[in-house]
Amino acid sequence: MSERGKLQFGDTEAVIERHRDLFATSWMQRLSALAVPLGVAGLAGFAVWGLSIPFDQIAQGLVSLAKFIALMFPPSTGGHLDLLLNAMGQTLAIAFLGTLTATIAAFPVSFLAARNTTLHPMIRFVVRRCLDTIRGIDSLIWALVFVGVVGLGPFAGVLAIAVSDTGSLGKLFSEAIESTDERARESVLASGGTSWLAVRFGLLPQVLPIIAGQILYYFESNVRSATIIGIVGAGGIGLQLSEQIRTYDFDQVAFAVIMILITVAFIDWISGKLRFAIIGRRAVS
Amino acid sequence: MSSRVLSVPQARLDALLAGYRREVARRRRQFLLVLAILAILIVMAGYAGEVDLTNLVDNISNFTSYFSRIMPKLTAAHFGADVADWYWDIRRWLKLLLDTVLIAYLATLFGAIGAIAMSFLAAANLAPNQPLRWCIKRVFEFCRTVPDLVFALMFVAAFGLGPLAGILSIGIHTFGTLGKLFTEAIENIDMKPVEGIRSTGGSFTTTVRFGALPQLMATFASYTLLRFEINVRSGSVVGMVGAGGIGEVLFVAIRKFYYSDVSAILLLIIVCVALIDLLTERIRHRLSGEMR
């Protein structure tokens, strides 16, 4: 090969000199690139200072944490496997009934909250704000409220999940309704269908698969949240778990956590299969 | 009505109609089957969940009256004084609310940094080591499946009461969820820049830094902001087990039936969450605008 075809690396200075504008960065650019990380770090510093985090406790805490983890092995049922299994079943029941009730409640409401099916913009506004308020309160707080209403036990958990998910599902459903293709509804109307029929045959077939996917996703996430709802006395495995942590029975904690992990993995697997069956090969979003 | 319309032979019509009816009947059967399975599950779950509708009907008035009881007593005549009375402890509550936001901020920050660092090792298209990738994916799964309150309870036992336990527990949960989301985002990037850098002999870190990261910054930031908003919400809850923030006063107020305090604190939380919602949404819209 001739010398001409080769890239000359001997003279790096000359290359840089030729493309000066590519290598040079102005101070403004550097400053703006630095501003975001600096701001983030500064706020973090302020947060650490504002929360007055006790750094001297960290080492000691890590030691006791290591002790807890050592106590976790081997995991043990503590002699009441039936109790734990029962609590896990309760957790699943809470998640299932909560999701189902939330779906039934959110479905009609979501039509009022969607721009294209609502009766009046004012109704849409009010419904949306109500859903936002419900969503703004964590399910654990709802659980506390419902424990006061129906007493201790899983029923309070069912109601808590049902109410807090009505807010989230209502919003998601209404967004699904808003993103539907209007033409299907228009064609039903054009062929003389009532607006009721237009929703039934023009809109529902489009939203049902999306809604089904969202319901399954929320069921999964509710299994997770139903595991903790027991901490405030609303049934499920959370009650056992919090008691065991308070009494330092970490081998039983480990067992309960493993049970939760297996159950959640199992539910994820099943709902993944179901979602695939319902939505088919369409991308799951 | 005399029809000149092209008519289909009766036999053909019957066959089509029968086919249609069969299809409808099949779908109807399927629907009924799903309904039956659902009914069985509902009965089973209702039994396990100790669902007691009479109890609900008897006590639903408690629920509705609960909301009328937590309503503050505001009168037009002494409006200012009434609001001041309602928010009698506003300074302490605002400080705790700020604590909650700061806890959420630090937890999101640490969780996101950890997730960014680990997710490149867990993404199928960039991971240098398959067993390591499997391990990291399991770690993510563990961190997001174990409820944050369980972590919070354990950290309160280990580190004592205070925000440290809250930061750690929410941070670990954030690490798990963001790790999963980031990994998926990385698996969807355009591989051409990555291949370009690999072909010039770049190491793993240079490949990530110059090939993958520039494509991902906006997505990462957007996911992190979304998570921050969720974390403010959970930050208001971890306080219930003593892990700092406004949750503790709310818990006490609900348990001890300080009705007007409950509504005051809940309103504070809702407004705060809504504000952060708005703020992060704005930033996220700007970011997604930049991406295009």
Put the structure in a nutshell.
The complex is a heterodimer of chains A (285) and B (292). Helix content of chain A is 76%, strand content 0%.
What does this protein look like?
The complex is a heterodimer of chains A (285) and B (292). Chain A is an all-alpha fold and 285 residues long. Chain A has two domains: 53 residues, no CATH class; 199 residues, MetI-like fold (Orthogonal Bundle), CATH 1.10.3720.10. In chain A, 76% of the residues lie in helices and 0% in strands. The longest helix of chain A has 33 residues. The two termini of chain A are 54 Å apart. Chain B is mainly α and 292 residues long. Chain B folds into two domains: 40 residues; 197 residues, MetI-like fold (Orthogonal Bundle). In chain B, 81% of the residues lie in helices and 0% in strands. In chain B, helix 4 runs antiparallel to helix 9, helix 7 crosses helix 9 and helix 8 packs across helix 9. The model of chain B has no long low-confidence stretch (mean pLDDT 84). At the A-B interface, helix 3, helix 4, helix 5, helix 6 and helix 7 of A face helix 1, helix 2, helix 4, helix 5 and helix 6 of B.
Q: Which descriptors apply to this entry?
A:
heterodimer; A: 285 residues; mainly alpha; 2 domains; flat; B: 292 residues; MetI-like fold
CATH superfamily of the largest domain in chain A: MetI-like
Based on Cα principal axes, name the global outline of chain B: extended
Q: What's the rounded overall pLDDT mean of chain A?
A: 81
Number of helices of chain B: 11
The CATH topology of the largest domain in chain B comes to MetI-like fold
Q: What is the CATH H-level superfamily of the largest domain in chain B?
A: MetI-like
Structural class of chain A: mainly alpha
C-alpha termini separation of chain A: 54 Å
Q: Which fold name is given in CATH as the topology of the largest domain in chain A?
A: MetI-like fold
CATH architecture of the largest domain in chain A: Orthogonal Bundle
Largest sheet: number of strands, sense, barrel closure of chain B: none
Q: Work out the helicity level of chain B.
A: over 70%
